[in-house]
Amino acid sequence: MIHVENLSKVYKNNNDEKIYALNDINLQVNKGEIFGIIGLSGAGKSTLIRCLNRLEEPTSGKIIMDNIEITKLNKNDLRKKRKEIGMIFQHFNLLSSKSVYENITFPLELEKLNKEEIDRRVNTLLKYVELEDKKYAYPSQLSGGQKQRVAIARALANNPKILLSDEGTSALDPKTTKSILELLCKIRNEFGLTIVLITHQMEVIKDICDRVAIIEDGKIIEENTVEEIFANPKTDTAKEFISNLRMNTQEELNYIKKPNSILLRLSFLGENSKKPIISKMIKKFDLDINILSGNINELMTTSVGNLILEVSGNEKEIEKAINWLTKENIHLEVI
User: Fold this and answer.
1) Buried b / exposed e across 193-202, counting CB within 10 Å, b at 16+?
2) What are the chain's domains?
3) Which of 18, 60, 148, 225 has the largest CB neighbor count within 10 A?
4) Is residue 169 within 8 Å of 204, Cβ to Cβ?
5) SS3 string of 38-75?
6) Can you spell out the DSSP letters for 323-335?
7) Digitized pLDDT (tens) for each residue of the chain, 335 residues in all
8) 3-class secondary structure, 87
């Protein structure tokens, strides 16, 4: 659906030095999936999502949507293509002087649809986002969640194939965030939209995304399914994001190990998170096992459990236990 190839965005500072906001980005987003891009402030994620519809012009590289290279489109053809790409923003970008109804009609009026068609479409969208009673209200009269629902309705007005979300929930409280994420899932499932969202919140990735890319200093440093990223993160940045959802991480790493012991971080994916792995391990091997902490993260389609263990005993016995855990499809890391 979306193919990004060798994409770079370069600025120059006052000394004529090149500053890479994006550096050789390669991504593949599949039709109908919710793809997350996560990174810290300044990592380049907003620049990346704005390049996808050419609100930002890439310096080099290709962006291909539905087999059309949009980086080669002229202004007129790009305008037509953008009708297939809806976008929602962190701060909603609603017109404060216009009512909810008028905000949603704006893109439809640009298409010069007749009044009856516009009215029918807007009423359908208002019902869909559950704001029928706010039709003639103004943005100043709405809560943050209601404003974002208006923005989503406006983004859906032209029946897009792709929805881009630029930090669409970061200005909202946790309860409202959850309701907006549920709405986005509903949109994907019922309309088959492809959704690309950027965020700095791992909770958002956990709750809604199928796959995720982690961006740092303008580069994609890790990309995988959400399940695999949670179960087996490869980079320090991924581990740091996930650690924010785990309990007592700092205490675990500062724990003073006993002699002849190691610390293991175990990750249990799917059904493995419900198996009595530790009980079996204790019975099977002559080892002392101390559970330092643990939790379970519920993802979109499965669960990922995490445990920090102190394992004490004979070195060969510990090695046997590690080999057994690996055969049981338990992801592990010696801390």
Assistant:
1) bbbbbbbebb
2) 2-225 (3.40.50.300), 246-334 (3.30.70.260)
3) 148
4) yes
5) ECCCCCCHHHHHHHHCCCCCCCEEEEEECCEEHHHCCH
6) HHHHHTT-EEEE-
7) 899 999 999 998 888 888 999 999 999 999 999 999 999 888 999 999 999 999 999 999 999 998 899 999 999 999 889 889 999 988 888 999 999 999 999 988 888 888 999 999 999 999 999 999 999 999 999 999 999 999 999 999 999 999 999 988 888 888 888 999 999 999 999 999 999 999 988 889 988 999 999 999 999 999 999 988 888 888 999 888 887 765 444 444 455 556 778 888 888 776 766 778 888 888 888 888 888 877 777 676 677 777 888 888 888 899 899 999 888 888 888 87
8) strand
Residue whose tokens read 């109908």: 32
Residue reference for tokens 């002087």? 97
AA identity, residue 175: K
167-172, long-range: CB < 8 A, 24+ apart: 167/46, 167/89, 167/90, 167/198, 167/199, 167/200, 168/88, 168/89, 168/90, 168/197, 169/199, 169/201, 169/204, 170/90, 170/199, 170/200, 170/201, 171/90, 171/91, 171/92, 171/144, 172/144, 172/145, 172/148
The token pair at 259 is 């002699």
